[in-house]
Write a structure and sequence with these properties.
Elements (H helix, E strand, L loop, with lengths): L1 H7 L4 H14 L4 H15 L5 H6 L1 E2 L2 E2 L2 H14 L1
Antiparallel strand pairs: 1-2
Helix pairs in contact: 1-2
């Protein structure tokens, strides 16, 4: 599970490639699973959940990243 979370939390494209390579090593015994993940999840929709692409792209008119979530949460706590 940690190898998958590393993919999702990749901050650069290079980190994504490295993390995907490591994931393939960890799951080497499960080639059908790796093919499924690559063709069904990563290739078509990685831009929607891998941190590098989320932080890079505009979503619903705003850039939304981990720092903005923390900031928003802090503001909400202070305003209570």
């Amino acid at each position: 599970m940690a190898a998958w979370l590393d993919i999702v939390d990749s901050e650069t494209e290079e980190a994504y490639i490295d993390n995907w390579t490591q994931f393939k090593v960890v799951c080497a015994k499960f080639s059908m699973f790796l093919d499924y993940v690559e063709k069904t999840i990563l290739d078509p929709v990685k831009e929607k959940f891998v941190r590098f692409w989320i932080d890079k792209n505009l979503h619903m008119g705003e850039y939304y990243n981990k720092q903005s979530r923390i900031c928003t949460h802090s503001v909400e706590k202070v305003s209570e």
